[in-house]
């Protein structure tokens, strides 16, 4: 087999516009190449916070996966993590189930048996179903209601339907709705805010916590920091929600309809002027003036320090990252770094950044991460010397790399600071070890949180401890604590 | 309760087995799924994916493809990819989605063969459904492989040995093929072809030249029988080098349970008997062939069946993958880890 990987330059893409995206970038136009990035985004259960992990975001919850065995196969990787031990259960479907639908009748009994086998009753049983039931047209809401009546324990569905990935409610949107669906109306607390969007907390040093505290917010809740079910339920008292990931938008709509809690949406950005504008807009919306100048200054200093230390740094950006790869590429270009290549999926929304990128760096090559000919990608002409993203590490194993896809969520100026700190570390490590990051080791498996030492070992300035559902405790900011 | 698993995550499914057989042979493999099954195959069940790029693709099916049965679109995508990649063959591997919508694999194969470039590019279809276990998928893939490619009769070459069943799922090692070849090679006097794990498509085409085939897992039996019926190649069960999995120790007079795939289990039984074991029971969650079963051997299907076997068997020693240990509560004997990649997803080395 021999050939060439397909790419377009940013200039070419911008010239064609969002109405004329080339076929290799259209997901439904070709077979899907199995790069680490496509496995992560094409499969809602494959790794990271897919549906399975996300479905267990509610404290004290357990999951019953009702599906053909293949759908639960990689869950053994999760089950081995202490956080998820005794939380995954399986009801395996066979061919007769598909023909007769008899597996649905077994669910209430299975839920009962699962609950009986546990020392503590779960707060909720999430029933996870997959493509087979999507095609069978199963009314899982009804099945869950019946199981709930029979067991007296809340039972909720979550849908791991890879088939509907491009639909209005793709799996990762739906699961966010599911995990908040247990909340019931409570008396409003004017000094409480929820952060929606992620299943793990923001970096402890993220300025958003301080800015909200300065604005008089006394309780900032994230589902990943909820200590227990009661604290999770108290998310219903929030004055408003901040949506930090567009996949949580429908969940926020549900909050508004059911609990009359409004929401404000913010994007994760790496362009410091845009981060500043966003905080300004947030301040205007809630009627306060934020002081973020120091945060911006330190973020920009971190970027410039890296640039000064490594003036020849030339980037490749993958899409398997806690960022929009096109926005991140644009941010780096605006900071003065050349971005030679991006591995991504071009959708109409990408053009917000691609058009600007085309003006500043028209020759940046954009490869379709999913197109079959990506099999032939050979690393280009050796002009790249640092990469961001697990997929970028896969394509350039020789370069220093920052995976930038860990559970702890970067956001705002703190995210920019951490990115450049990790880039510096990666560069130094490469110098010491003479090799790039091993994407197989750190990317293919979900890292087990270190319960004894916490993530402070990985992120030296953090004092928090990773605990349970991705929440943190310790001296750092605590979910729901008085600020 | 039938089908309910409380501590055992599902084992490797049939599509992973099929993919594992064909992985190294230079073909384009299309997992007929929406993305999740390919994620499981590449990201979990196929350790070779981490060491080399391969032409394993997801069909990228979406709901309307499945509802409308748009096989023609799949064939179109396959044809286009095949034109770019120039593979030795194309294989379409089934998952629950085509199983639910009742995909006609024969028709799909015919349609693909008609449109494929070049015209004579072989197209294999493996009707796996994600509900069977990996060995069933391996069995189907081996059979399809030999039926499609081992069509010419070559004179049997003395010393040429074929090995069927060597996959990472069975051997638990990226070096599985090399280890088997070394153990069976008699210091280089014999030419050992581990089909799909070391030996490529040319060796498969020349399978009739083997003087003998060794079947190291139940999944290889049907293919071995096919080669015997078609070319007269004799075959035998065996797992060369299996004894290396037995740690040093005193097994004299001990009652032992071995849990693994049946052929390896039986080979370990023979060795343990030679070492003085009083009795050795072989239990498997996978295919159990009647000709290898002895009294007391068990075909496991449910967690409680396994727990009962451990509780009532009176064993002194149990060889099993550590993921089974939660089902051995109350067992006071010795536990010896016997990794099975298809169970735990862990490699032995």
Provide a descriptive summary of the structure in words.
The complex is a heterodimer of chains A (about 475) and B (about 350). Chain A is α/β, with parallel strands linked by helices. Chain A has three domains: about 50-165, Nitrogenase molybdenum iron protein domain (Rossmann fold, 3-Layer(aba) Sandwich); about 180-265 and about 450-483, Nitrogenase molybdenum iron protein domain (Rossmann fold); about 295-445, no CATH class. In chain A, about 40% of the residues lie in helices and about 15% in strands. In chain A, the strands form four sheets. Chain A has a six-stranded mixed beta sheet. A four-stranded parallel beta sheet of chain A has the order 4-3-5-6. Chain A has a four-stranded parallel beta sheet with strand order 8-7-9-10, sandwiched between helices. In chain A, β14, α18 (about 390-395) and β15 (about 400) form a beta-alpha-beta unit. Chain A is globular, with a radius of gyration of 23 Å. Chain B has about 350 residues and is an alpha/beta fold. Chain B folds into three domains: about 15-145, Nitrogenase molybdenum iron protein domain (Rossmann fold, 3-Layer(aba) Sandwich), CATH 3.40.50.1980; about 155-235, 3-Layer(aba) Sandwich (Rossmann fold), CATH 3.40.50; about 245-345, Rossmann fold (3-Layer(aba) Sandwich), CATH 3.40.50.1980. Chain B is built from 14 helices and 14 strands. Chain B has helices at about 15-20, 35-45, 65-70, 70-85, 95-100, 105-115, 135-150, 170, 175-185, 200-205, 220-230, 260-275, 305-310, 340-345, and strands at about 5, 30, 55-60, 90-95, 125, 155-165, 190-195, 210-215, 235, 255-260, 280-285, 300, 315-320, 335. Chain B has a five-stranded parallel beta sheet, covered by helices on one side. The longest helix of chain B is centred in the middle third of the chain and has 16 residues, at about 135-150. Chain B is globular and about 65 Å long. The two termini of chain B are about 35 Å apart. The relative contact order of chain B is 0.13. The interface between A and B is large, with 69 and 65 residues. β4 (about 90) of chain A pairs antiparallel with β1 of chain B.
